[in-house]
Structures
1.
Amino acid sequence: EKGGYATFMEKEIHDQPHAVADTLLGRTDAEGRLVLDEMSISEEQLNAVDRITIVACGTAAYAGMVAKYAIEHWTRIPVEVALAHEFRYCDPIVNERTLVVSISQSGETMDTLMAVKHARELGAITVSVCNTHGSTIPRESDAVLYTHAGPEIAVASTKAFLAQITACYVLGLYLAQLRGGSYADDAQSVMKELGGVPAKIETLLGQMGRVKEIAKFMADTRSVLFLGRHVGYPIAMEGALKLKELAYIHAEGFAAGELKHGPIALIEPGQPVFVVVPSPMSEHGLHGKVVSNIQEIRARGARTLVIAEEGDEAVVPFADEVIRVPATSPLLAPLLTVVPLQVFALWLSTAKGLDVDQPRNLAKSVTVE
Ligand code: M6R
């Protein structure tokens, strides 16, 4: 049942091309227009939406943070991401024009369930992005958009994360299509490009040998930092979470722009820092800004482990290691850049002799508040 792999997590990392492909399957018609049969909310109601709040916990919340950048870009609807356990107690501003999107692999996370119930009481329209058929959160929501990642057994979430980003993108593009005009133009071209992502993940998975080696050498590491910007910022947070959960190593993810506002003081000789570099095609010169960050931390002795697009040569002079990912448009990059971070955490945990699938103190689904 582990498909020949030693752990469920390793298998699930390799399931990711399918998780993305299956989540896209059947969601477009012959002309490439999005059709969401399961979206049992009227177009009138959806067109009236003037604010989106995403509620989720842990990795699912990082998927929500990634989705915020994309949905706002495509629809110009303001999106807020709230940790489900905070949402309920912060007197949230929600009404019948608010679309509350919950994201949950299990569909049973109590914090997320309570947030959804609270949102409904306040009159919001609720959509659940969920991986488990028949679970509680979809039942308590107005509509559900299933992620088709297949059962995820390892406690650390991997393929569900990619499927969650994919499903949220589908939802965002569907809303853009409903809005019509120039918004709708994005929908078809992005869906087309998304269709090519599974093959890119497959290619990437085939070139993870060096990441595995790096992880093995780092079994004694006490702290690892992760930097990213724009959609790479939640990916940095996710990379840090994977390492905490699986290898019990102190890890922190930062927005790269925040470095000079404090965290750069943590850099001392030998400190490993992963940097998720934005695509050179990113707007506002973000790529160059992150390359400068790499230069700054390297000058202070950091060991820089750089995740950069194929062909991005600007990072090479400042990188101790360059981990390549296939080129994509900037908003789709998270579906690739997170993979080496998952693989790194898997092999570091293995190198420490830990239980990859069942890390200490954690449960697959957190059914208490
Ligand atoms: O089942 P859910 O997606 O609602 O679970 C949410 C979090 O508990 C979950 O993502 C957790 O953070 C994972 N262990 C991360 O690997």
2.
Amino acid sequence: MLTTCTTEKLDVPCTGSAHVPSELFDGLGARQAAISPKFLYDALGSKLFEAICELPEYYPTRTEAGIFERHGREIAHACGIGSTLIDLGAGNCAKAAALFPLLRPAQYVAVDISTEFVSEALARLRLRFPHIDMQALGLDFSSGLELPESVRAERRLFFYPGSSLGNFTPPEARVFLTRLRRGCGPDGALLIGIDLAKDKAILDAAYDDALGVTAAFNLNVLRHVNRLLGSDFDIRNWRHVGLYNEAAGRVEMHLEAKRFQSVRWPGGGRDFAAGERIHTENSYKYRQADAIGLLEQSGFEATRVWTDPRCPFAVIHAQA
Ligand code: AVI
């Protein structure tokens, strides 16, 4: 089920209380316990992710920003000006805002699961760019992409930076991209940033930083789950694990129980043995050819690719 809400009217999470707990119950009850990575992004989680992007170990944000800086004009040429810029997972809107002077969008639509966070960012952005028509959408676009009529249908340019595609499994990514391609309409396109496979040591450090910000980001999901589910996870009983699984081609984040514990929630609960893990995120790292293959299997035509010579990362423009 898809829940769409315009943030201006909202002061509650828009994730529809009817389906959120059942998804969480299923994940926590599974043999390999799991929590969907979307639950990492409550208001604090979004702020912690913002801090991760500043860390020296977390290269994707810096690398991608460098590509936008070095190739901005070519990127704008490929995308054209005056588009309907739809920013998926907009967060603090900083990445899209940096492109406004080049892309000069006719409309900017900031989509994020964390409504509170994105609407605050948009309020600040409206002051800087009063001539751009802007709207915020609180939307869990991982499960559907029904845009309201207020979003212009012409010249849609979906913007999906930061390698968020890596948080889907490849089959899920294909389903998601196919849905995006349909949402583009006949004259739409996609501008996407995809992280590429690299040295295990670099990846391990990026997802388990020395300051412990990624650990806090991961552990915070349990506080969010406690609020959503009424459970009694004690974050002091868990430790963060983030490492590259080379065979699977992905970084995995887990929470590992430090000791045996019983966790309760209304109507149920679960015992966790010491060392047992809850899987909280995958972050797939593609080879460039595989990333392009994925786009093409989803009906897109990759027209331009920009990379960084020192750190494998690709920004791709793909026509619908
Ligand atoms: C949002 N997403 C692309 C980030 C990533 O790199 O997979 C989330 C993240 N998880 C840990 N650090 C950052």
3.
Amino acid sequence: MLEPATTPAASNNEVVINTDHLKANLDKSCEPNTVNRWSVDDIVALFELPFSDLMYRAQTVHRENFDPNAVQVSTLLSIKTGGCSEDCGYCPQAARYHTEVENEPLMALDDVVAAAKEAKDNGASRFCMGAAWRGPKQRDLEPVLKMIEEVKALGLETCATLGMLKEGQAEQLKEAGLDYYNHNLDTAPEFYGEVITTRTYQDRLETLERVRSQNIHVCSGGIIGMGESRNQRAGLLAQLANMEQPPESVPINLLTQVEGTPLHGTEELDQLEFVRTIAAARITMPTSYVRLSAGRQGMSESTQALCFLAGANSIFYGEKLLTTGNPEADTDKQLFAKLGINKI
Ligand code: SAM
Ligand code: DTB
Ligand code: SF4
């Protein structure tokens, strides 16, 4: 088991983890995946284990690869909000759905940098900039490259989620200093068409290949609780786990239901099924950071604790995701203190 070196943070009494030794895990996850091939049935079998057996397996895999008490903390900022041309059935930012989201143009550089400084002061190690685009046009990308450069210069890891990338765009993002690109597969291929019709699964895989080809770390996961079956939840994990190099970061979002979107009113997912999904992600992608993403606001402390026990080791930190709410930073600080979790 890895025992991290801890050092007192300069600005407060929290313990900050020295993560150098964990970088070895990232290097490991960048190796070609020739060993673990997971069939959908294998993953369904994990979901079907008695809960305690599943948790034990997940926690064992987790401890073989990570410090079980360290959680990576990212802060999100919506740098361009609403008015999106796509039809993602879960998304409050799609122009075609009538939601309360107000369209806002691309933020000014100084405002983004100020938000990143605040995130850093609050203890985030990664800053993720999200834009409601199908994909960036060249005139959109240029100001974003400047944001990435300046956020990186603050000493933060940088992440962006801007939609589909065209040839040559991943190169520019890499050059600007981008560490991670988030682009989710969202769900299993066979359920995908029920949720999105304006771009294909293959489009998404191609963007991920562009990101990977530039040695930008891949952040890719999905949303559960959209009415998919357990087989389809397993199908999403199989897609991710069987990639030649599985994503370094795997966000598992619980659908945040927003009025006005087609998926509003979907039957709520049982929270223990969410925990099972986290556990199955941990077991099938042992060296990836598994992020407990959207949906935490509606979860009890106990459910979140079970997610950490199941192997989640990353969260979004700060009171807002892109347009919807997230727990207050102070609430998360208290939860981490209660659980003895240290921030990475
Ligand atoms: N427009 C870009 C794109 O779609 O790739 C980037 C931003 S988009 C909002 C990023 C991801 O947020 C989506 O792929 C989806 O997985 C997640 N997301 C969006 N709305 C959500 C919701 N209501 N609940 C949970 N996750 C959501
Ligand atoms: C991801 O997988 N989840 C984040 C991030 N990547 C960009 C987004 C969640 C969005 C939730 C809905 C909203 O706030 O608009
Ligand atoms: Fe647009 Fe992204 Fe929302 Fe889809 S998820 S509608 S691409 S902002």
